[in-house]
Structures are given as structure tokens and as C-alpha cells.
Fold this protein.
Amino acid sequence: MLAKAKELLQQYYGYPEFREGQTRIITALMEGRDTLGIMPTGGGKSICYQIPALMMDGVTLVVSPLISLMKDQVDALHTVGIPATFLNSTLESGEAGRRIREAMQGKYKLLYIAPERLESDWFRQWMHSMNISFVAIDEAHCVSQWGHDFRPSYVNIAPFVRDLPTRPLVAAFTATATTEVTRDIARLLDLDQPEVVVTGFGRDNLELSVLRGVNKRDFVFDYAKAHTHQPGIIYAATRKDVDELYEQLRRKGLAAGRYHAGLSDEERGRNQEAFLYDDVRVMVATNAFGMGIDKSNVRYVIHYNMPKNMEAYYQEAGRAGRDGDPSECMLLFSAQDILTQKFLIEQNQLSPERKSNEYKKLQTMIDYCHTPRCLQNHILHYFGDEGEQTPCGNCSSCKDDRETVDITVEAQKIFSCVRRMQERFGISMVAGVLKGSRNKKVLQYKFDRLPTYGIMKDRTEKEIADLINVLIAEGYMGLSEGQYPVVRLQAPAVEVLQGRVQVYQKVAPSQPLESAVDN
Ligand code: ADP
Ligand code: ZN
């Protein structure tokens, strides 16, 4: 069966091999199993349903919310000789009916529809007499309220499928991999014991780095200046930051463009075009930039601020190096970014449940910014990709050749302080107590009487807070949910306190280690 699929891959698309995840998805589908394919954008999802569609009887229904892309998708299929068509609100009256009749006559293998179609009785009637063997659902996270893009009309998919005279095979695809969303997709789309395939999140050509404590502005200018011949994107959190960076890059004589939702359609279009055609090399933008943009030779993506979660980060960073050539993804982290993101969460009118979910996701992003572990592996692990997990050798963690020092004693000081404060305070309060701060709140709670008060006074509060963040990222401690998260000990911290486990950290050689550990 797979041999036949491979033949079609070569015949229609001219590719000699399936990607690893495609093989797993197509195999499951050919075995007649419902499938949930989780793959990053650009991972090659379309082929996962297009090839099975060619191998099955009847018509494959493809549900997609991206009306503006439908025509392109169908045109692309025509170019390679696959008969397909689409139905959406852009069609003139009468045209939809004509296409459906043609589909009934077996003229098409794939029929793309917008989910709103499913609400039409007229459409459902027709579908009852059509031979639909397979339903593929693109952007399946739209069915979940946990996703970033909930579409009420997706809720109609499951009842629609249930009402068909014979139940077709169902496959759902998404690039969003959080457990809540995955669970929702399987449940709300009524997948039948689906094969879940998570794949393709590894991008070997991306050199990931997290830079903490750099002067962001200088870094951006120096980097853009040193790479004027290469296309790159700089993402900033706010329109104001975008405008400022843009102005300054321009003033320094760099061919920069900008993009954010505050600009006119006309200017956005023009700037995007200029970037696509290499008239400007560096694009300064908010996260509004990038959807549906396929520029393969982006050589670097700099995040001027930490984004709100890992999905957003990896989607944006992943716009680098689509052509497979080495590219850099740099995230410039500062503690201020955490506050900004919390502010944004609080500003949105979210249900308590939603809010706590946003905080949880933000924390995983903060963890990424602090982990000493290989960043590639960290990302794969986060997305649940079962690919191989050897350190990439290429990220800022792997290339960190600073000395590894034993910080067990420091970690013990922190853990015991957290415990003595009854695990009821946040990072800055714990850092304040360890530092021996005279802060009003510290004194009010009488923390100056704790044996752990001031036992790290040789370090700055910021250093202590950084260390606490590292220990959280490493899973020794956790943060409670909410706007004022509280630091709590996790099981591994207890092992450290009992002296059964050592803790190590990378430290710059210039930093006097003795004073850090020994006081
Ligand atoms: P997605 O829908 O996951 O964003 P696409 O299906 O658009 O991704 O595929 C992304 C790109 O990868 C396309 O240019 C596609 O032709 C290419 N591609 C997909 N599968 C293969 C393969 N097996 N070999 C080579 N290129 C592939
Ligand atoms: Zn690495």
C-alpha cells in the first residue's frame, strides 16, 4: 500500500520520499484508522490527505477555514493534475451547485469546503447522496476553545459526519500540540480511537539561542548591520517598539521595513511586498506579520521580546530557514517581558479557566528562556515530538562552553527559604528574603527572623531571581497559576535538600565562583 502511495508521490509531486511523519500518517489512514496529525506549519500536512484521497474511492471532503487560501490550494492541485474544487462564500450563485453536481459525477477527488457550509441544509442534503469516503479537517484546533483560533462552525463537523449514510474515515490536522487542544480535537471531532502522530517539529537547520541580559537595542542594530545582505525578521511585542526600532534602523542607513496592525492596508501590503522581493532586508514587525507568507530564505528571526507562549514562538521563529539552509533564531529575554505578557493576559476578558491556561502556557515560555538544556530538545519535548533526542550541538545551550559548577549549596539555600516561607510567596519576595532586603513586606511578615534571611546577601536580588527561574525551568520548583504566582517545591528539590542529588549550573569563567557558592 505504501509503495503505491510513494508512486503517487513521485508521479504527482515529483518527490522521491515521504517525510517520516507523512509515512506514519498515511500508513494509519490506509489501515482505515482515524488519524490526528500534529505537524508544524510547512511540515507537509496537505500531502497526508491528498495522497490517501487519490487512493480511495469517491470524494474526499477537506474542511478548511482559510477561505483565502482555498483557491490557491486547488490551483496548485490542478497544476500537478489532481482534480479538485472548492466551495466557499466567494462563489457566484449557481456556481456552487454546478461544482457539486460535477463532484457527484466523479469529476473531483477532493472537495474543499469552508466549515460554514455544513450549516446549510441544502448542502447537507447533497452530501447524503455523494460517495464521501474520507473527511480531512485542516486547522483542526479551531474546534477547541483552548486553541488560539476557535471557530464555532467547527462544532458542526462531528454531527455532520455522524449523519452521513456511511461513516467516512476522518483525519484531523493541526500545528497546535498542547494536551488540552489535542484532547478537544479528538473528542469534539468525534475521532474513532485515533492514531495520534506528532512529528516534524525538529528543524535541524535552525540555530536557536536565548540571550539574557543583553542590551537589546544594541544587539539588534549590531546584528542587522552585520547581516545587511540577508533577509531577517525582528519581532517586537508592541507597535510602539516596532515603530521605534524601524525608525532607528532607517536612521542608521539600513533597508528596513515595518509591519503591524496599526498601519494602513496599503502600507502593510507595500512593506510586505518589499520584503518578499528583497527590496528591504530586515522586517520589523509585531506578530501580525507572517501569516501565509512564504519566504523561504529568511536567514534570521530575532525576538526582541519574549512571546506569550511556545506555540507562538516556534511558529514565528520557524519562519527562518524554510529552504533548509542554516538560519538563526534569537530570543532576547528580559524580566520585563514577563510583566508585559502578564499585563496582556490580564487585559483580555478571559474566563478564569482560560486565564489560568494562558498563565500556564506563559510559564512554559519562561522555562524555555531559562533552561540549560538543549533548546532543540526542549522544543521537541514540549511539542511531544517522538523524534530522536540527541543534543543539537548548535543552540545557545549546547554551545555554552562556560564552566559547569556545583550550585547545590545555593539551591539548598533557596529551597529551604521557600519552605520556610511556607511556599506562599513569589519569586521576588523569596529573592528579597535571601538577599536580606529591608523591604516593607519582608519586615511585615517578619521574614528577617528566618534563618534563611540574608544568607545570599553577596548576590544581587536579580541574580537570585535568575537562579530561582533556572531552578523552576529545571523542574526543582514550580509556580502556581494566576497573576501572582507562588513558588513551590517539587519532588526533586526535596532530594536536593536531603543531600541526595547535586545541582549544576553553567557559569561564566569571569564570575568568581567561590563567592557564589560559599557564603
Ligand atoms: P503544511 O500544510 O503542513 O503547512 P504543506 O503541505 O504546504 O505544509 O507542505 C509544505 C512544503 O513542503 C510544500 O512546499 C510541499 O510541497 C513540501 N513537501 C511536502 N511533503 C514533501 C516531501 N515528502 N518531500 C519534499 N517536499 C515536501
Ligand atoms: Zn542544542
DSSP finds 21 helices and 17 strands in the chain.
